[in-house]
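Before the break, one more example. Copy the sequence into your notebook; we will annotate it together after we see the structure.
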Amino acid sequence: MEPVARFALDRIQAARRDVEEAGAYLALAQAVEADAVGYAVVRGVSWADVGRALGISRQAAHERFARRITGSGSQGRAVRPGASAPLTAAGKSSSHT
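Here is what the structure looks like once it is written out:
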């Protein structure tokens, strides 16, 4: 293979690796963001405050993260990991079983 062609191929392969690496970093950042939002919401931070911190609306924050946190997204109430019922404002499960 000609040196110029080899150089061009090496550059393309390096660029492809850079894009793949950027995608992995993006996925990691999104997971960290979702974990931080979940942690905040479970501890009583409002969706409005979450949205404000992310520079988006309350509704956009809820739409993006509620399903991951509650498992359904319908009520937007946090579920403690391992619990079957949403938490109340006091942080206790709302089911009385």
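DSSP finds three helices and no strands in the chain. Residues 3-70 form one domain. Try to locate both features in your own notes.
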